[in-house]
Design a protein that fits this description.
Two copies of one chain form a homodimer. With 256 residues, chain A is an alpha/beta fold. In chain A, 26% of the residues lie in helices and 29% in strands.
């Protein structure tokens, strides 16, 4: 780290060998000094897990040509902590996480390892962005998403972000020319309707696979789901102050 | 489930054998039909992780006398999903999670498995409360915390909660007589300053233990940390809409 170019930390939750992180490295590598610290295996659905009951590994690897790169046994949030404390020995100027294979719009933000890395960056006071593409396939075309990530990372490096705010950027799956533009949105109110797929193991014991259907019950035209449905990139400013400030008044009328 | 008493789901993140969940079961068992679905092992720091890459086990166990009780191999959020879909076959009237051994005030809410179960309940539209005691010890005295949990659960059963809002209740560690009262609070702005404890395994390879010091940089007298320091129970109304609504205006001035 001898130059005065910005330091950009790249991480993800699909693991260091996922095509999405390669696309993200390519998207931001000319914007600064890129350092990759990412999980050594897939960590989807890890939410904001951190590893406190097991030791963590951190190993230098040579995956992206000319770029300092480490894999860890930890979660996406662990990656950001390890990068700051043990790799960079300083805060980077930007954290970018992704490009996730699959949507992190709406309620997915709660379950997302990709977004937890960006949240962890914001907790550290670092401008941070999570990127996700609306296609789960390993071999999804990342070209348009890479262009979006480049533009967004450049803007955030130039403008910064309000304190305590990170960005949740979701990208529709289409050719770049067919992306209609960018919309600043709120998180749509939605949930998963769970169905557990019940099976028997070879020993006769039951087990369950979690699966769910996304149910959007928010018909606003200012939501991320609406923007994406209309082929816009959705940008949700996201915070880690979970206080429901609007409910404080109501609760203060309770007679504790 | 033949009575018309409310159904109360009890879960936690310290695991089904932790003293905290026993205290919570005792605290709420006279308020309705209690059903326990909790992790079969400790899940602290799991944030809002869900299990999508591995199958889940769900086994009936006999731990709390006269109370239907299941342990799962999943996370706290999985427990709520499994309870609704596979145990109760309906939504309970209340989800209570805890009593956590250790604080979930301030930024801890982000990392907390205890709170993720309550968040999952709220996503399902169920009134939900997470309880945490400011003592990490396995043998901490849960008597005062149990009384607080009883009172809060009773109130929420009677009054309900605003849509999309759950409660993060933290309890100071002192005798019940020394608790000064209840304060509705906001989440204090704070973070952990990480330190990784670096060691070598018997094979000469490095590994790291994550540890951190809690750093509060919020001097407001309306925060959970302030309330707890002054021996009040802190009640933070908490939401899973992570949109930073106040930042939408700023971002709309950007020229995308």
């Amino acid at each position: 780290m001898t130059s005065d170019r910005p330091i950009i930390l790249v991480t993800n939750d699909d693991g260091i060998t996922a095509p999405g992180i390669a696309a993200l490295v390519n998207a931001v590598k000319h914007l600064g000094e890129v350092v990759v610290v990412a999980p050594d295996s897939p960590q989807s659905g890890m939410g904001h897990a951190i590893t406190i009951s097991e030791p963590l590994r951190l190993d230098k690897v040579d995956i992206f040509k000319g770029i300092i790169c480490y894999q860890t046994s930890g979660t996406p949030a662990d990656c950001v902590k390890l990068a700051v404390s043990k790799v960079l020995h300083r805060k980077p100027d930007l954290v970018v996480s992704g490009i996730n294979h699959g949507s992190n719009a709406s309620i997915n933000v709660i379950y997302s390892g990709t977004m937890s890395a960006a949240v962890e960056g914001a907790i550290e006071g670092i401008p941070s962005i999570g990127f996700s593409l609306l296609n789960y396939a390993h071999d999804a075309d990342m070209e348009a998403a890479g262009k979006v990530a480049h533009k967004m990372a450049k803007m955030v490096l130039e403008k910064g972000l309000p304190e305590g705010v990170l960005l949740n950027v979701n990208i529709p799956y289409c050719d770049f020319e067919n992306i209609k533009g960018y919309k600043v949105c709120r998180q749509a109110r939605a949930k998963y309707n769970e169905e557990f797929d019940e099976r028997k193991d070879p020993h006769g014991r039951n087990y369950f696979w979690l699966r769910g259907d996304f149910a959007n019950f928010d018909h606003g035209d200012d939501t991320d789901v609406f923007a994406l449905k209309n082929n816009f990139v959705s940008i949700v400013p996201t915070q880690f102050d979970l206080t429901a400030h609007h409910a404080i008044g109501t609760l203060n009328t309770w007679n504790f």
